Amino acid sequence: MAERVAVTGASGVVGGAAARAFLARGDDVVTVQRGPLPARLAVLGAREHRADVAGSADALIEAFAGCGAVVHAAARVDITGPWEEYERANVLGTRRVIEAARQAGVPRFVLVSSPSVAHAGHPLIGAQAERADPASARGHYSRSKAMAEAESLAAHDDRMAVTIVRPHLVWGPGDTQLTERIIDRARSGRLVTIGTGAALIDTTYIDNAGAALVAAADRADLPQVRGRAFVVSNGEPRTVSEMLTRIARAAGAPGPSRSVPFPVARMGGHVLERVWERSGREGDPPVTAFLAEQLATAHWFDQRETRRALAWSPEVSIDEGFARLGAHYGGVAPG
Question: Where are the beta strands (DSSP E) in the chain?
Fold first, then answer.
């Protein structure tokens, strides 16, 4: 049965996917973000509510009134930047959204997080959703999201059930965080592999991420879901080299042009991070230490428990996702 739901950060990749999935089944969707509502969501019937999640709780309480669930996807996701900005957006912002949801009487709360909250740099092979650890998380983003998870789980009780969903490496048409960055680098001849490119990684097609968040919102108050964190992915591990090549080819661009040894890339990432932070440069550095680790280290997850608990499974396969990507960007989807 249709209900009213709120999605923060609907102008972003994952929040937008969740909002579209709710709208597609007829829910009354309120989107909460600082800027204008994306035209695609407005056409589908979403209702815009502008607010800063780290600002006054009053605007958030108004947006959440009458909602059966809140999906909190708003976050600072940039690779570099001052810690204070991540803390405000991701830690304080989550705290404010939780407080507002509780005051508005929302019974189910879903936090969008990341597997990086539990990644200390070693390979993850058939891993589960391990406990978030701010102390070992790599980089400001991962650390702040680990802290946001702690804020969320501390709020879990009989009045408001909390569930955490960690979509892993979301990609697809219109995704500016991963897909279009890879395409831009490929078009300029700057796309490289770190190490051999043979590390196996899980990824998540964008529509699957949105559907998983809907499933989590629906089932957040069930015993097998409430108070838990789940990693979500397509469950089809592929090599880093294959993923980079096929995303680039989908836009008619060449695959990686060369390989950089992992120790060199990691050291270069550390140096560039310091340069960017100290100089306040705009945009992202070519590589960071965390990115080097992600591209050179295996990380894929056992999805059986996630699918059982959420009663969800991906509808769009990796190969179908590449076909859709090729149709969107006018390239090819090589097998």
Answer: 4-8, 28-33, 47-50, 69-72, 108-112, 124-127, 161-167, 170-171, 192-194, 200-201, 204-205, 229-232, 238-239, 258-260, 299-301
Question: Which residues does the annotation mark as catalytic?
Answer: 141
Classify the C-alpha dihedral 235-238-243-245 as positive or negative.
negative
Q: Residue 6: what residue type?
A: A
Dihedral sign of CA atoms 8, 9, 15, 18 in order: positive
Q: At 55, which amino acid appears?
A: G
Q: How confident is the model at residue 287 (pLDDT cuts 50, 70, 90)?
A: confident
Q: Two tokens at 70?
A: 């809140």
Is 0.90 topped by the overall pTM? Answer: yes
Question: Tokens 């991963």 identify what position?
Answer: 178
Domains contained in the chain, CATH given:
4-171+205-233+301-315 (3.40.50.720)
What are the CA-CA distances from residue 152 to residues 11, 75, 276 (Å)? 22, 14, 31
CA angle 145, 149, 151 (to 5 degrees): 110
Identity at 221, one-letter amino acid code: D
| Token digits of residue 119 | 């990644």
Percent of the chain topping pLDDT 90: 62
